[in-house]
Amino acid sequence: MSYLPGAKIYVKLNDAWQQAEVGSASGGKVTTTNGDTVAEKDCCSYSAVAAQGLDDMINLDVLHSASILHNLQTRFDADKIYTYVGSILLSVNPFKPISIFGDDQIDTYAKADVMAIKDGTLKPHIFAVAKDSFEQMLRDQKSQSVIISGESGAGKTEATKYVLKYLTAVSSKAGKKGAAAGAELSPVEKMIIQSSPILEAFGNAKTVRNNNSSRFGKYFEIQFSSVGEITGGVITDYLLEKSRVVCPAENERGYHIFYLLCKGASPEERAKYKIENLTDFHYTNLSGCFDVEGVDEVEEYKAVQQAFADCKMTNLEVDAVKRILAGILHLGNAKFESAEDDDPCNLSADSAASIKAVADLLDFSESQLSNSLTQRTMSTGGRGSVYKIKLKKKEAEAARDALAKHMYLTLFSWIVKKVSDNMQAEKPPAFSIGVLDIFGFEVMPVNSFEQLCINFANEKLHQQFIHYVFALEMEEYDKEKLGITIDYEDNKDCVELIEKKGTGILGILQEQCQLGARGSDAEFLNNTIQTYNKHRYFIVEKRSRTEFSISHYANPVKYETEGFLEKNRDSVNDDIRSLMDSTSMPEIKSIIHKKEDAAAGAAAGARGRKRKVATVANKFKDSLQTLVTVINSTTPHYVRCLKSTEKKMPGIFDGANMNRQLGYSGVLETIKVRLAGYAVRMDYSVFVRRFAILVGKVEGEGKAAASEILTKSKIDVADTKVVALGITKVFLKREALLLQLEKAREQFLLSSVLVIQRYWRREYARRKFQKLKEEAKRKAEEEARRREEEERKKKEEAEAAARLQQCDQQETAGEDEGRERSATEQNNALNSVMSKARTDGVQCTFLNIKDRVMVLGYTPMATNHRNKVDKESPGISMEPVMIKGWLAKEGSKGFTTGRFNNWNKRFFVMKKDRIVYYKDESLKDKKGDFQLETSSSVTEIPETYHKNLPTGVGNHFFQVNIRGRSTKLACDHETEKEKWMDGISTAILQLKSGTEKVKTGSDFSVHMPDRSILTSSVKTSNAKDVFLKVATTVSIQKGIQFFSLVKAYTTPDRLDFYNVFSERDNVADLGPYRLAFYRVISLKGKDDLSDPKLLMVEYSQTVRANLMFFEYEEKDAIELAALQLKVKEGTISSVTHTRGFLSENLHEYMPDSQLMRYGDNTEVTNQWEADILNRAADIESSKKSVNECMEEYIKKSQENVLYGCTFFEVSMIREEQDYAYILGVNSTGLHVIDRKTRALVVSFPYVSIMRWSRSSKKFNFTTQGENHWTMLTKQGEEINKFMGIYVRFLLDNKD
């Protein structure tokens, strides 16, 4: 290629690409205007697009290393450190803080849709990769992985932390802990974040290339629920560089934790762990490097301390960790002396203090510690003798360092496992996102066994990358017959050179380790050369007797084999192992004690072969293979980290260094694949189903249909630079094309929705107008029916005195639908459960003469007062709707009859906005009712649903919708259907228009939950109006749907019961009852106790229920009484609240269940008083506020099975007598209480109740095993109503 003078080009100078201008070109040489002369092969054409700094380098006009570097430098200079290469993210370490990682950035990326990233609205970012992995996990229902790679100092650790930060933030929102950025993290999420300071402190160190270099690899698997909430995490570590503990290189440091401990320890810690200055310890003083520029290591130490606590490590465990760290430092100060180098050695005199410190810290015997460092126990094997040999000075130093390395390695492994175990999910996760942060490719001045393992790991991961990016891509193109060929180099042979079983380099190393003392580094090298001297990736170093080279995918690396076997064995001698086992501190022993695989040894012996020696290489190879298998089972996302300079300084873009990293990052190959291939591929069926709406009717299917859609969308299917049609899939060259189709589809759907809405509104208005025409003529009939219903209710109340006799008559006449247990069977069942209940109480005289005042210490909800109201405005008289007749009704899934999906003929009566249905026209046996509301509606059932409707119940169907619940009805004639639909529609309109005739104003005294009384004037006696007036007056804002007006009454045995008013009931005629405002529905765990009003209501009603109905163990009753006393008194005084304070009003605090048993026993009641006062004093000293005591009282009460019950008077036949009981109904089930003793007799969870029915005199239900129960009560309708509410709640909230 010839270059014209004046043209812009890139030239390669000193291994770096630079921009230049051509001065002249001839003879295969190019001379620039700067005077540099280079060969044409070292010149590349200039990219004007790269000067713009594209977000995605797939779109570069000219593709080669020079244009890529130019684009990266343009962005780097503008502090844009992230760049896409297709789906791969390149991250360039700027070596300075950049403000693009805050909560606001997380929020921006979390709220953005995927297309915002695809079309460039949002710039490249590590958060975008994390977002893509998280959303793809939920969308595809498949686990993901984020593979972060690069050299030491390229920023892998920081990238990992940012991925974890994003995932925990969006998980907090998915778990509904807060939609705003910075939402409170769950304990598991906090552990995931706080694991980073611990892992960095124990696994990172300062090196010449990186101030925070990870000296181990880790795969952090974050576990998620099906809705994207983090449930746990698992950490797997790989190959810690343990040699750094004892011999850090010059200008480098050991692991951070040693320096943090020495700098940040408190005076008490320094004394306890015998901590000195860094210069006083051999291991930390060896390299002469003590500080990290710009890092406050005192604060870092505090952060690690906090992280320990957040990761649920106990104080004893943290103490053991610090003892081991200090012990390692003191162990390094052990020195040895001998006359000659080859003579046996002893510990020097000045080592005594260090040895004593190690022994004290780790609970070792000083003599055993000294002996394990200076001598070795040898055995001749079999029954031969055991003897000890003294070690030479170098051997003793090696033993000392081996002990230090081994203790640190076991400590690190224990910490990783401990943190991992503490954060692991309790249940199997639905999905996971794994984040891999592993050591990058290394070429050191001297490369040993550790570098071989590190570079082998990079070869293995590069092979996985090639397989994912290239091999799978080409396999699909071949399968679809697209005729695309891309040349790429597979490193499979290099991987097999290292790992091939038996004959690979690691296999030959394992064989030498198996030989024990007969194996040697020299023999290992000789065997390797003999096996692979002609292998294309193996290089024989002819000038060296201890080295060989491997031509890795990145660079050739020369390895020094001296010490290979010793490093691979990873073992300590028996003396050191016995020493570590000798400590009596359980926490230390659990950390440093290494269990041998006895089972493996026994199995090998049983098969008559030598046990396989456990080695570092084998363990690492197995764990690496497991890692690759895990990654292959996920959808991977790649982040390639690049180091802008080796100087660790900001603002320097070292072209030669960056070019070298690009050479083995796979970026160029990725771009080639993306340019030659297709970024988007979809099955024809999926493509047609999604985009056929853009062109209307599509002829044919599969490839033909896809081709038609593309053609009509003005996309040339013949242009393979844009689109290709394979055997089963359509391929799009760029994601922008998919974005174009998606936007067109979205616009089409939007316009279609508007058309549908327009037509529906017209139809709805037509139906509404048609039904309004006939509403007036129906009102008179409805009013008559309403009056008839009121008369019926009055008659039923008058018959309450003859309840038992009438029940017998009704039972004989067969009025109840469900089967009833015979008197003998029910008697036996009651005797069975009563025999297990506590029924030894008696009605004590103490309780008979007492009455509870329950004056509360806080401001009452209402005082006796009269509220002013506006002058009454005249209403408009309108005739109420009244209709009656036979309809067929679909069963309500157990809420009325207990049977599922059955249809029954019922006689319906509609009066105004209330519909009641009976068994027959006698109107004696009520089966249920509907209460219409302003949000209710009545509609015809669509014809498409008619095929699912039964035959024989009627030919004309319609449905009534109340609060989201639909009830299907049927009648025989079209005129009947129109009559009912018009009537119901009219009643709803009356509710909306508010034209109901009102009465003159009335005064009402309403009893509040805390026994205060609200006196108010309301313009109508309608229950709904009175309720709204009371709710407004007392300012109940949350949970108002759970409150109601009730008719409350107190029985002679001092029990409070109530009946709930319906919305349209008249509250003027109360008779012997009192009008009250109570919370009647209580759902455990759904209360907002932060609302003072609701807290007061819940506390007041809980106290009343506890004292009257609940049964507690004595210690629990005392605790509740003390809390109640604190609430009532406000402050517990040591002068006032002493003996005698509660003697006259103990019944205000102790429940009836206790008083009935022991209320007349003076000794017991005196002890109760003392216990309550003492416990109240303890509560006072704890500084708990009154509101906190209320909350604690409620939460403790919630542990009782009766919490939240509405109670009803019932009776049952037992031993041919009518026995009185109390029936409690709450969110957990039905509960039968002995009225005489207040003892809980039996509970029936809703899951055990198969069906139930009721009449105005009875309530029947059948439990599992066909056990039938009949309860005599006039509150059957009320019981049924509450059961229906709770069962519906359980069904709506089941998992």
TrEMBL record:
ATP binds at residues 150-157. Residues 1002-1295 form the FERM domain. Residues 775-800 have a biased composition (Basic and acidic residues). Residues 824-834 have a biased composition (Polar residues). Residues 880-989 form the PH domain. Residues 624-646 are annotated as: Actin-binding. The keyword Transcription does not apply. It comes from the Eukaryota. Keywords: Actin-binding, ATP-binding, Motor protein, Myosin, Nucleotide-binding. Signal peptide: none annotated. The keyword rRNA-binding does not apply. GO terms for biological process: actin filament organization; actin filament-based movement. One of its GO terms (cellular component) is myosin complex. Pfam families: FERM_M (PF00373), IRS (PF02174), Myosin_head (PF00063), PH (PF00169). Residues 52-746 form the Myosin motor domain. Residues 775-834 are annotated as: Disordered. GO terms for molecular function: actin filament binding; ATP binding; microfilament motor activity. Belongs to the TRAFAC class myosin-kinesin ATPase superfamily. Myosin family. This is Myosin.
